[in-house]
Here is the input.
Amino acid sequence: MAAPAALFEYLVRLGDNCLILGHRLSEWCGHGPVLEEDLALTNVALDLIGQATLWLELAGEIEGRGRTADQLAYLRDAGEFRNLLLVEQPNGHYGETLARQFYFDTWHCGLLQGLSHSQHPRVADIAAKSLKEATYHLERSEEWVVTLGDGTDESHARMQQAINDLWMYTGELFVMDEIEQDLVAEGIAVDLAELREPWLKQVGKTLDEATLTLPQAGWMQQGGKQGVHTENLGFILADMQFLQRAYPNATW
Amino acid sequence: MYAQMVDTGVKRVKSREEMSPEERDFQDRVDADIKIEAKDWMPESYRRTLIRQISQHAHSEIVGMLPEGNWITRAPSLKRKAILLAKVQDEGGHGLYLYSAAETLGLSREQLIEQLHSGKAKYSSIFNYPSLTWADIGAIGWLVDGAAIMNQVTLQRCSYGPYSRAMIRICKEESFHQRQGYDIMMTLARGAAEQKAMAQDALNRWWWPSLMMFGPSDDQSPHSAQSMQWKIKLYGNDELRQRFVDQTVPQAEYLDLTLPDPDLKWNEERGHYDFGAIDWQEFFHVINGDGPCNRSRLRARVAAHEEGRWVREAAVAYAQKKTAHKRTAA
Ligand SMILES: [Fe+2]
Ligand SMILES: [Fe+2]
Here is the structure.
């Protein structure tokens, strides 16, 4: 069986991606471009925060030091966060939010599909439940990428810019490290490198339909999994953790 | 409540003799509690008043997302964050139901929003107060949603069908809103000393503005009589305010928090709580644009709308391309 430390680390990665992206999306609540979108995007945020809670709860259990999902979310500093750089990128304009979501959802669905067959039954359970939600998220973000890509000249230009700007954060989605290799060998985790080709194909297909161009392969940023983040994460945590930090040990 | 001062455009309620046959017929239906539907004949002033009232109500739901939305990213636990997100999302949904109800009267949502953004349409004064601490989220749910429910429950029986049905849907969700607010207050009031102080401070700041939500006293509300005859207002402002005070005092006692009113006391004879004078000066300043947050609230709404314009335009353009495509294919 996997070493608890490795599995803990892996679960925190899964949880942090959902937590930080859910946080970002929740920033839109009340400020969306149209009321229906405001509500729909909030649904996605809610799903992701729910998934984050499940992953982090399990991580705390596996770790065995009595840490709860809240303690993991609210009492770690940026260097201990394990999310991908992609999900902490600022919301920007609506096209940027959707491009980020589109890259993530496409990857997330592939990942969850794999994880729903994990040898670890708890992991498989959470993944299967999350996959249903992620599938809907992906449908939504694909639809929007096509709508904005093939909408007006302005929306086309904005969408292409967003797709280009975020491209350098997509390489990290498929980088494996030793922890993941060990967990793959045990049938618990998913081989991310294997997700790359199908991801490229699916992203390319949607961009094509959206009359957008798939960016050229280029230099990719990475570091999230090692806790080396962009400047954004510190601000996210300052916001998110403010009360827990200002009033230590209080119950809310 | 979310529509505090609705101008009916009518100076004096008409007597039966002064009414045209159509008006008399209309009033008979209202009196018999038969719902008026969009396609039915209605006096022009009834239609205009309803547009004002329903859109004020809708705008309040939408602007009301801002003070609470303020704390979504800072909510102190994953559970609180999810609850608050769902709550604020509900308010957006309420706005949606209400805009749809208003649209049945002949104005588009775009037109209604334009009226909000130009300052022509009002929204509840309460949302022009700032949410400064986490306890404000508790106080808003407890008091602001509590006051809104007081009014909305009665409006489920109002004469206009689409409005009444929107209210029924909304009321189903509202009690959860008040409960989550009270639950936050309870947790704070039973928590550390600083948390209890935070709860008391929020109560101090939100109490009077919550009482103002019911609108000016009935003798200061020239349009009430007409609205009541039309059954788009079912109880007087003072009566609802009194009910709210009577309901809230024991809840505050249970929290062991003090309502910021030295004149508040039980009146055995009336069977109600007496309470101190409301500062109507403040109310009129806030409703006329000079509250602490009027400008920032409206700016945030306008910014969201303007920054979203290209997205909405793209969605329309894309849908048109699709239908054109289908037509050529057919
Ligand atoms: Fe509401
Ligand atoms: Fe509410």
